[in-house]
Amino acid sequence: MSVFFSKQWIRYRLLFAMVLALLLLLGVGIWITSSFYNEEEFSDQRIYISEIMLSNQSAYPYEDGNFYDWIELYNGTDEDVNLFRYGLSDNDASVKWRFPSGTVIKSGGYLVVFCDESLSNASGLRAPFGLSKKGKDTVILVNDGGFVVDRVATVACGNNQAYAYVEGKWVVTDQCTPGYANTSVGREAFLASFGGDTVDCNVKISEVAAKNLSCFLDENGHASDWIELYNAGESDADLTGCWLSNDAEHLFEWQIPSLILKPRERIVIFCSDSSSAGDNTKELHTAFRLKATYASVYLTTKRGTVIDMVTYANLPNGCAYALLEDGSYVSTPYITPGYPNTKQGYEDWCATTPYTAPKAAAIGVIISEIMASQSGTYPDGDGDYSDWIELMNITEKEISLEGFFLSDLESDLYQWKFPAVVLAPNSRLIVFASGKGNTGIQGNYALHTSFKLSSVTETVYVSSPSGQPVDVVTYRNLPKEYTLIRESKQDPGTVTRYPTPGYSNDAKGYAKFLEEREGQAKPSLVINEVMLANTSYLKQKGKYYDWIELLNDSGENINLSEYYLSDDQKDPFRYQLPNKTLKAGGMQVVIASGNVALTGTFPHAGFRLGLGEVLHLFRKDGTLVDSILLVEYPKGTSQGREQ
What we know:
The protein is mainly beta.
């Protein structure tokens, strides 16, 4: 009997058979996948994921020198395995990358795959996906049949930390071992395997200047931070491919190009945040800057082994952290870039490289003196006692300051602009930091900045028209009527109570200043000695008071009634000295009891003295003759004038 089936019925039967076959296949596939990978039955005798780095900042670079996250595989089988068509992914949804043809992992061997999510086309052992350091990924390895052979759920890791399979469990570790066993022996082998990490050299970071705003310039006239390297060994040191960094978590910040240091040779590397200083320079410039507050500098081999490391703190402008001959380090204003860190090295550097950088026309100008608070030392043209800054031309040529700037803000070096001012060789110029902003040229009293100075802590900048500092000085806690004096750009300054505005910073300069101020060779009467908190001398009716000693420093007799003492600059006539003749060279003691009625053997002033006050001596016409800041001295001692 013949049975006929319609074509439509046949199509349904065929479609049903195909669907059934597909379901059976998926079921088998699901069964294979689940049975092929079972965490509870995990065996080291297969290919599996052995180590993962989720935030590779500087631990292990790819061949292009960059740092990508990475995944390490281990072949625990007895045979080499061709990984062609095996795949990796950061999730279970899809395979994002497959191993290229010819990729073989040897028996007992390791293989590292880098993860670069910026890739549009994968190349080499670099997968086009990234990993999250927060640990939100599931890394899977699939075989050439598409089945998952290993799966690892990542956890949060820090920079340069690895998530490693160690002795049957996954742990977070600082000791990554890409390409080697996750053991201490593997770590040592990993470090020893780096090309360049067994370099036999004795190179030192011999000098670091972390805030160089004017003292040492490159070929383009720019002042950058700098590092000096020194080969202390007896043979050539090949530093080609080594690294410099100021970040412990990123040791591969800047790679040294072709460089061989001969024995005892030094090289200065500018930290300008630029890979080069320009097309016409032979100088080396890093891709980072240094921190002036607190930081470390690292010199490492090609793969990150530290050759030398230096930690410094709070380096002022113009100072360096220098390695001495005894192996210790010291912070010093006597920088010696390219020369030994010795007194002779400093002299040689000054003699051979003094301010010769191009584009620095006013490099011979220094800030030679600063007074940040006064009430009677040196008045401006308006009769006000303003703060002031003295500049000096330390060269033998005229220097024009037109277009240059003064400032007390690093963030705004253009605060006050110089007019057409020319400094003669070895001459000085006073600029009052009064806030008045005057720039008319009328002798020495005409220049007034648009800012005032602080007596507590301040940094003063002299900058070129392009904003490049040519000198910078920082002072701290400068007392009233005292000045900070300097002789060079490397000089951090000395605090003194003997100001010399317009004159040399020495005893002769002070005498000339007094001669100009008073119109005579030297003042006839001066404050010679003061004692505060007196408990032992010149007892007055059962009590001890502070006292003042005056000296007739002239060659003639004088009448004391021509002078007044005061602790208030705004009230110069507070206490008139007695009508008494004081012989040349003679002395007179005045008791500062606050009660004139107590006058007996010694005259008593109508005011007391206080720590931190300024004691003034005036003539009867109101002219200031002398002043002294009253500072703290050990108990039982006095504050006296140097003879």
